[in-house]
Write a structure and sequence with these properties.
By secondary structure, this protein is of the alpha+beta class. 18% of the residues lie in helices and 24% in strands. The chain folds into five domains: 2-42 and 319-350, no CATH class; 94-158, no CATH class; 186-249 and 296-311 and 357-448, no CATH class; 452-598 and 653-766, no CATH class; 769-890, no CATH class.
Length: 897
């Protein structure tokens, strides 16, 4: 509203915005009457209104972020702010003022100020006159020839009457902080800057994962495509302009530096820190930081110039008192009444406090309008054409000569890594010579309005015919894991578990096709999986079965999958000590299978140009998003899409192992394209056709910014808005380390983390069993009969309290307790133990193909050969690790809402 008011009044009577004002006024009135008022206090399902429910609480989502303006750092120029600016101030009483008890002689020229009939008597109130006299006389007498330094112990000197401290921390007795020291003082107040900005088209920028070529540590950095940029020399930019601003010099940079050093100290253990720096050295270091000679300030207004907005002091239509609503001033109302839109009191009250920035409107003119002045996303280079430091006395330090020349004069800045232009060619390549100076500073792509990176574990849901498929984020009480996978090194295979930790199937290397898959659930009793059972309809289980079929169907896939997991264990963070108490820690490290969703959301609708006469938003080379993303076409080449890097191999604290893209023909229970698995742990010899692919720059996921207007229409209620937002994420089926978070890098926003809730891993690990196939082995005795009453059916977690009575002489590790799981044919069912079939009923006597297992103790077997007489018995089975009794009490239940 303020932008409209300002633009209308500054339009020099042309009234080009009259239609816009009336249209927005009608839209606001309609939304207020038809949508906002009826939904301010909606009733709940039980008829109560929101205000009647006392236990309702506000929910808080992640904040939005916007990149800050570039920061200018000038070394070698001391700040004029006192180093003890934030220290406690010394307060003195009247009798503590120097000379109050025994006044020293002051120059005759000062007496007309302090005499009882002097100038001060007519200005200072009687209650303060004596104090003012003492302070004036103290000021006149604070000269080295009159008052020595330091003073006597009973005297209290005024603030800043001491020697400044040099950078080494010792006082400089040749100078005083409250004196000019026979020289012209310099008190820098602000930077005065001017830059020439060139907007480089987005198609010339590449997001590069530096870990791919191993030239730098892992990060996502935007660089200019040198080959394409030089090949199209005539179309290098989308506008060139010059703008300027002023930046106040404040004391915060020095305090920020000190706080960062303190933060660094707090992250190091006290014992290790004491070896590096003892207390005295730390205190000296922190004290010395305050005396470092440097100035620092952001280039305030840099980004707002690209958004066609101005900083600075200006008139405002409202008068705002503390803790009160804004009141329009009469002059603003009178000015508005003379023009057709007639801004009302209500219109101006809507401005509230949003009047700090002014639009370009018609106050800024441009000769060349070939390209729009408005830039929704910054990506270009700039150089300084003017850079001055101005002090409070009007003095200036010029970094660039202000003399008039026939060409642009700039300076050579020292840029940080983020703003440093990359060198397109090294010395000698194609005869090119590396330049000796760099005037330009490079700004990689950054969104010029508030946005955030959303991340969540998601599940595919099918809504109504109008809603279609959408990804619903899981809550903290939902288990997002649709499976677990563990390497079985003993059998060179993979063991798959359901999301809750229940064993499902195993796939091993071997056999005629190169892979062997166990029957479902074996060697444990099968779970009921009928068509009417929720377990068989669970999308998690169906997706897990699809992955098992894919691994089982290709020996290349299986071996590459195992090699990937084996390679990732070399770089992942060690498991926490508590994991060593779990049974699964004996065999391998379980990895979770989850679906993750990532989206880029704008805080408000896309910004538009505030320059009257600028190009239409649809004519921009690229748009950040549509005004509302309901009908946004993702195939539109004029929409921005930003690459995102998931995970990192070099950073041990990142838990991503690999990810699957989403299938274009997704359905509930079969949403992932399992043909390709992208990972940082692919073998060096992997090729494009291999199922496990190394992540490349051109295969990084792309995110589209989006925004949905909550009051777009009457039908957009809270549920509809939530479904629309849930359709936006880019979803990937991920293989993750359950102990470490996944990290997403965009170079646009802060790094985003996503981690499994601790209760999910604890509850799943409690159910996981540790076993592996072994055999064939030769025994000198026959197996116990399957109908022996002492036989014990297997359970997934072998409890020590249920020790089996039957035993078998099988060699095993002496570390821990192990049981033998012996398979029997189903037609020899155990008495009293009817074997359930796949449909949930009792076993059919005609089905002799199914197998059941019983559990037996292991007898200790030495290495001595006894050469007993035959016949021998050849057996195959499983070794299962037995759970100690005390672990039963350590199970962690899931949280309850």
């Amino acid at each position: 509203m303020f932008s409209l008011w300002w633009s209308f009044l500054s339009d020099r009577g042309e009234n080009r915005l009259t239609g816009t004002v009336e249209m927005l006024r009608d839209s606001l009135r309609k939304r207020h009457d038809d949508q906002i008022l009826p939904n301010l206090n909606p009733p709940t399902e039980d008829g109560r209104t929101a205000s009647d429910i006392e236990n309702m609480q506000f929910g808080v989502l992640e904040p939005f972020y916007q990149p800050s303006d570039p920061v200018l750092f000038v070394a070698g120029v001391p700040s004029s702010w006192p180093h003890d600016f934030l220290d406690k101030l010394t307060v003195r009483l009247d009798w503590q003022v120097l000379g109050s008890a025994k006044r020293e002689r002051i120059p005759d020229s000062w007496k007309h100020l302090t005499d009882d009939e002097g100038v001060m008597k007519n200005i200072i109130p009687d209650e303060l006159f004596t104090t003012a006299q003492s302070l004036t006389e103290e000021f006149a007498n604070l000269r080295p020839k009159v008052t020595p330094f330091p003073p006597s112990s009973e005297e209290v000197l005024p603030l800043y009457h001491d020697h400044p401290v040099a950078t080494n921390g010792t006082p400089d007795e040749s100078k005083w902080r409250d004196r000019w020291n026979s020289c012209q003082p310099f008190f820098p107040l602000y930077f005065e800057w001017e830059v020439q900005y060139i907007h480089i088209p987005f198609e010339y920028w590449n997001a590069h994962d530096t870990s791919i070529d191993s030239r730098e540590e892992s990060k996502l950095r935007y660089t200019v495509d040198g080959a394409k940029f030089l090949a199209q020399a005539g179309e290098k930019h989308e506008g060139e302009r010059t703008f300027s601003g002023r930046s106040l010099i404040l004391p915060q940079p020095g305090f920020s530096l000190e706080s960062k050093v303190l933060s660094l100290f707090s992250q190091v253990s006290e014992d290790h820190l004491e070896k590096l720096l003892d207390d005295s050295k730390r205190e000296s270091l922190l004290k010395g930081l305050r005396y470092l000679p440097f100035l620092s300030a952001p280039l305030a207004g840099f980004t707002d110039h690209l958004l066609t907005r101005l900083h600075g002091t200006h008139v405002k239509p409202n008068n705002r008192s503390p803790n009160e609503k804004p009141i329009p001033i009469q002059g603003a109302l009178d000015a508005a009444a003379k023009n057709p839109p007639n801004f009302t009191v209500r219109d101006l009250e809507l401005i509230e406090s949003e009047s700090d920035l002014t639009p370009y409107s018609s106050s800024v003119q441009f000769d060349d309008m070939q390209y729009s002045v408005f830039k929704p996303v910054t990506h270009g280079q700039f150089r300084f054409t003017k850079l001055n430091i101005i002090d409070k006395f009007g003095q200036a330090i010029h970094a660039i000569s202000p003399s008039i020349t026939d060409h642009i004069v700039s300076t050579t800045p020292c840029t940080g890594e983020y703003f440093a232009p990359q060198v397109l060619f090294e010395d000698g390549d194609n005869g090119a010579v590396e330049p000796t100076d760099y005037n330009y500073i490079q700004i990689p792509p950054q969104i010029n309005q508030h946005a955030r990176l959303n991340a969540s574990f998601v599940e595919l849901r099918e809504g109504s015919a109008a809603e279609g498929f959408y990804w619903q984020p899981t809550s903290e009480w939902d288990n997002p894991v649709w499976g677990w996978v563990v390497i079985n090194y003993a059998n060179y295979g993979l063991q798959f578990f359901l999301g809750d930790g229940t064993f499902y199937r195993e796939v091993r290397a071997g056999g005629p096709r190169g892979t062997l898959a166990s029957a479902e659930w074996l060697p444990f009793p099968p779970k009921p999986l009928s068509s009417d059972d929720p377990l068989s309809q669970d999308p998690h289980n169906r997706q897990l079965e699809k992955l098992i079929d894919k691994v089982h169907g290709s020996a290349v896939y299986l071996r590459a999958f195992i090699a990937m997991i084996d390679e990732c264990t070399k770089t992942l963070m060690p498991a926490p000590p508590a994991y060593s108490e779990q049974l699964s820690s004996v065999v391998g490290r379980p990895l979770a299978l989850v679906n993750t969703g990532w989206s880029l959301e704008l805080a408000v609708e896309r910004y538009t140009s505030q320059l009257i006469g600028d190009r239409n938003p649809e004519d921009l080379p690229r748009r950040l998003a549509d005004q509302d993303s309901l009908f946004q076409n993702r195939d539109d080449p004029k929409l921005y899409k930003f690459p995102m890097k998931l995970g990192s191999r070099e950073k041990a604290y990142d838990g991503l192992v690999g990810y699957f893209p989403v299938s274009p023909d997704r359905e509930v229970g079969n949403a992932l394209a399992l043909d390709k698995l992208y990972t940082y742990y692919a073998t060096p010899t992997s090729e494009d056709g291999d199922p496990v692919q190394a992540i490349k720059d051109d295969e990084l996921p792309r995110l589209f910014p989006f925004y949905f207007d909550p009051v777009y229409s009457d039908s957009r209620d809270a549920k509809a808005l939530d479904i629309l937002r849930n359709k936006q994420p880019e979803v990937f089926g991920a293989i993750v380390d359950p102990f470490s978070p996944i990290h997403a890098y965009t170079s646009l926003l802060p790094i985003k983390e996503l981690k499994l809730p601790p209760w999910v891993t604890q509850s799943a690990f409690t159910k996981m069993t540790t076993f592996f196939r072994i055999g064939p082995l030769l025994l000198q005795q026959d197996l116990p009969a399957p109908d022996d009453p002492k036989q014990v059916l297997v359970t997934e977690v072998a409890e020590a309290a249920k020790e089996p009575q039957l035993s078998i002489p099988v060699p095993a590790s002496t570390l821990g307790n192990w049981n033998w799981l012996q398979p029997y044919h189903k037609d020899d069912a155990l008495p009293g133990h009817p074997r359930p079939d796949a449909s949930g009923g009792e076993a059919s006597t005609s089905d002799a193909t199914q197998i059941f297992h019983t559990r037996m103790r292991l007898d200790k077997v030495d290495q001595k050969a006894r050469f007993e007489e035959g016949p021998y018995t050849a057996i195959e089975g499983y070794l299962q690790y037995q759970r100690p009794v005390e672990e039963k009490e350590k199970e962690a239940p899931a949280p309850t809402s």
